[in-house]
Amino acid sequence: MTITLTDLAFLQSETGEKLLADLAGEDLSEKHALKLITTLRKMYSQEQVSAALTMAKLRLKAVHKFGPDASQLFFTDDALQQASDPLVRQYRAQNIEGKRILDVCSSIGADSLAFAQAGAIVQGLDIDPVRIAIARHNAHKLVCDATFTMVDVTQGIADDYDLIFFDPARRDKHGKRIYNVEGYIPPLSLIEKWHAPQIMVKLAPSVDISQITKYGGEVQFISVNGDMKEAVLHVDGNTGLTAVLLSHDAVNIWHRQDKEPDVPITEPQGWLCEPDPSILRAKLVKDIAYEYRGAMLDETIAYFTTAEKPNSVWIRAWQIIDWMPFNLKKLRAYLRSRNMGTITVKKRGSPITPEELIRKLKLTGDNACTLVLTQYNREPIVLLCHNFI
Description:
389 residues; 3 domains; alpha/beta; Rossmann fold; 12 helices
């Protein structure tokens, strides 16, 4: 269901607030939906029931991004999907106390509120009246110093801000991903008209770097606990590509200090290393391999191996038991001779799918291992590894 201004007015009323409070304690699963709707329709209109159920379900979905605050905030489904991870919002809001921030395409206010809670004075702009109304509601509930105005930002914005944060839509009206930054809504080129000491732009984590080099600045690729979340372009005097790995107790940053190091290509050593996805996107694989005295398997593959297990938050490592050129018959015989039955398959640089390989191996043994399909010097190989712990 699409939330309207009329729906929001009802949900903000005393009656609507009571209904939402009642729904917070209900089972909202599909199997109970008919009974619940039948009960509610004795007291509320169809439109009111639909709006309240939609918002109640969105609040449940929002807990992983907004925690306990989700129970008093408003959302739309697409805006909730686009809202940043809470650790990313927290990271972006560092060192901005007292700054005046303009949030362009502020949507329901997720980033604006994070900035405001960190002590900034925030003005949010968006063209969608429903999102503006929701953002105002959310700011009121969280008692934040953030105001929101409905504006078509393509017609120009004020320049008297310390930081401009821009979060353009990266999906079209049908929900399809937009891969070209000039196809963003509004396009990235809009920032060429703006003037501020800092401009920060949220990008898709899969952004093509060649599309944004003309804007200069630094691109940060941000992952949370090893899960790639987003890319952010900072136009503030810094340059280059940076990997950022966030966890609940640490902020880890990796930025190349000099030219890309030379790393040898060798046969697999004792440990297979997979860098954090932010390292991959920031093109820093050789940098981290060099740091941990590793060697590449192939110039085009983002794995490397080390003689000893690396102790790093940036790396997942599997101990290599053995390896061989890929040959299905020989691999099957090898695994059966070792009583292997349960295998986990990873791949990088191989056309074979894990499901296809497992089906063709037809293993029935009692032991377990991890198989890694990849390349060594452009030739397909398979690594037999202990399972990751």
